[in-house]
């Protein structure tokens, strides 16, 4: 039952995706898999395995060399200009370094998640509707940071900054949330707060979440499914109830097991 | 072997070959160029008593002259502010196009940089002479000269600032589907604004000083009066002009230094 749903209506599909960087480094090698709507997917693998590359092909922050990436059954490779911006605005992305504008207020950072929905001149003049300002406040409320609305972003701790980044992504009203090692620079408690927030968005709003993680323990705790990359290849793909210690260890081997 | 061996320095480093070579080259060049241009330290010493004559006269400033030069001093400051502002305004789009982290198109970037380099090689005195010839004696020529001079200088300072910004916020803005202009407005400008203002003030300081000299060529402001007093051997008036200019420059430097410290 679930298997058919997966096959008929994936929100993202990779079809024979290859990525070779300009300098000849192989980023991704013949990636093939589907991500069903509403899944919490965790991608693991050694440093340099291609996790960031994989994530960035979905919203075209990286171009692929061959193959196809489908979002909502549509190939994203040919999108240009406006179509590309429309693809990106429905995909939230959060980063290891938060990537907030440090000198701007929290409110402005959160509102900046909306700029894909506004004409450029309104963005430049900062003409957001009262309705959207209210949404910004609500988005901050979801990450429990309403008190910081008018603080400058660089006055916040790392965990708080990451939650502002999540609020910013929420403003996009995303179908998909991409998170590239969102907790790599956070302590264990803040890590939990951030991961819980992502899980909540996944469960309550039905947002498909794809997270790159270095920690296998966290992956097992939060994921519905874990995929593993090694040297740009998909070497592991199991639903969470099939995940075993031995299987995970195999991802981190430098050579495939004989 | 348990203890690692300390790697040997290459002999070029051990005997400071390049440092010594550079020193020798520079000394030789200095001697050669002073011979070629006929610069003569003896002549400087021989004429020093003429300088003392001038100094003696200048030590009796004609303070009454002050009321005459208030207006041209004011004009000098206005010229500097206007020229710097126009130059900096034009510098912003050019510096964005010249920054390697914003513009991937290498041909465009190099063309812009070549243009900026050309502008910077134009000496301001030459520009002033040309514009005085075109627009006649007056502050228009001065403002245009200062604008072009500031444009060349500020563009380079600006694009070097842009090249040091954190690219993270740009990546984030790109990922939310922002247009190019929006990315610059939201992710680039907030990171560079303070340094831009700081460099603007720094250029303004230089321009206040420069505009006194430009006036000497007829480009308006206090320099016109400086030239007149020197031509008439009216050194006591010259002294007042120099002192007043000094005070103005010091005040502007002080204000701008203070503002820049607050900003950074
Ligand atoms: N812009 C680039 N140009 C050339 N090679 C790159 C570029 N970005 C990444 N690579 C290479 O592609 C491979 C995959 O990189 P990627 O960043 O996707 O790995 P990762 O799994 O995210 O690693 P990490 O856990 O360290 O973030 C690496 O070998 C990396 O060196
Ligand atoms: Mg990575």
Automatic annotation (TrEMBL), chain A:
Residues 12-256 form the ABC transporter domain. Keywords: ATP-binding, Cell membrane, Membrane, Nucleotide-binding, Phosphonate transport, Translocase, Transport. SUPFAM superfamilies: P-loop containing nucleoside triphosphate hydrolases. One of its GO terms (molecular function) is ATP hydrolysis activity. SMART domains: AAA. This is Phosphate phosphonate ABC transporter ATPase. GO terms for cellular component: membrane. It holds the Pfam family ABC_tran. It comes from the Bacteria. Gene3D superfamilies: P-loop containing nucleotide triphosphate hydrolases (3.40.50.300).
From TrEMBL, chain B:
It is a multi-pass membrane protein. It comes from the Bacteria. CDD domains: TM_PBP2. One of its GO terms (molecular function) is ABC-type phosphonate transporter activity. Residues 73-256 form the ABC transmembrane type-1 domain. The chain crosses the membrane at residues 20-46, 80-104, 125-149, 183-201, 208-227, 233-252. PANTHER family: ABC TRANSPORT SYSTEM PERMEASE PROTEIN P69 (PTHR30043:SF1), PHOSPHONATES TRANSPORT SYSTEM PERMEASE PROTEIN (PTHR30043). Belongs to the binding-protein-dependent transport system permease family. This is Phosphate ABC transporter permease.
């Amino acid at each position: 039952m679930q298997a058919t749903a997966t096959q008929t209506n994936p929100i993202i599909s990779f079809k024979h995706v290859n990525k070779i960087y300009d300098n000849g480094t192989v980023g991704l090698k013949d990636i093939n898999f589907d991500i069903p709507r509403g899944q919490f997917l965790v991608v693991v693998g050694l440093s340099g395995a291609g996790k960031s590359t994989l994530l960035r092909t979905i919203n075209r922050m990286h171009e692929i060399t061959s193959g196809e990436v489908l979002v909502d059954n549509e190939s994203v490779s040919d999108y240009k200009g406006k179509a590309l911006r429309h693809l990106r605005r429905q995909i939230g992305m959060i980063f290891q370094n938060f990537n907030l504008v440090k000198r701007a207020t929290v409110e402005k950072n959160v509102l900046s998640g909306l700029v894909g929905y506004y004409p450029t001149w309104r963005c430049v003049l900062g003409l957001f509707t009262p309705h959207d300002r209210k949404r910004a406040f609500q988005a901050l409320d979801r990450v429990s940071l309403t008190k910081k609305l008018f603080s400058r972003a660089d006055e916040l701790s790392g965990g708080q900054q990451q939650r502002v980044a999540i609020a910013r992504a929420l403003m996009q009203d995303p179908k998909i949330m991409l998170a590239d090692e969102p907790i790599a620079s956070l302590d264990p408690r803040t890590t939990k707060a951030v991961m819980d927030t992502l899980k909540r968005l996944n469960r309550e709003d039905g947002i498909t979440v794809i997270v790159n993680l270095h920690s296998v323990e966290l992956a097992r705790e939060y994921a519905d499914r874990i995929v593993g990359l090694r040297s740009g290849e998909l070497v592991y793909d199991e639903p969470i109830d099939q995940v075993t210690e031995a299987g995970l260890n195999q991802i981190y081997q430098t050579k495939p097991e004989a | 072997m348990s203890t690692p061996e300390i790697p040997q320095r290459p002999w070029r480093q051990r005997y400071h070959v390049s440092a010594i070579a550079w020193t020798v080259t520079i000394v030789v060049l200095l001697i050669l160029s002073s011979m070629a241009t006929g610069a003569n330290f003896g002549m400087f010493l021989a004429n020093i008593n003429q300088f003392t004559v001038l100094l003696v006269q200048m030590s009796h400033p004609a303070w009454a002259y002050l009321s005459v030069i208030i207006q041209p001093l004011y004009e000098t400051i206005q010229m500097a502010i206007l020229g710097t502002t126009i130059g900096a305004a034009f510098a912003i789009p050019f510096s964005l196009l010249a920054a390697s982290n914003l513009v991937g198109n290498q041909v465009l970037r190099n063309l812009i940089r070549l243009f900026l380099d050309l502008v910077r090689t134009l000496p301001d005195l030459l520009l002033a002479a040309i514009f005085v010839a075109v627009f006649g004696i007056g502050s228009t020529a001065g403002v245009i000269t200062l604008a072009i001079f500031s444009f060349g200088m500020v563009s380079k300072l600006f694009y070097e600032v842009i090249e040091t910004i954190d690219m993270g916020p740009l990546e984030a803005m790109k990922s939310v589907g922002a247009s190019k202009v929006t990315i610059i407005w939201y992710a680039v400008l907030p990171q560079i604004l303070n340094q831009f203002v700081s460099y603007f003030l720094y250029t303004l300081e230089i321009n206040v000083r420069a505009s006194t000299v430009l006036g000497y060529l007829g480009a308006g402001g206090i320099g016109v009066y400086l030239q007149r007093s020197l031509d008439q051997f009216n050194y006591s008036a010259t002294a007042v002009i120099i002192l007043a200019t000094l005070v103005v420059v010091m005040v502007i430097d002080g204000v701008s230094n203070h503002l820049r410290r607050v900003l950074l």
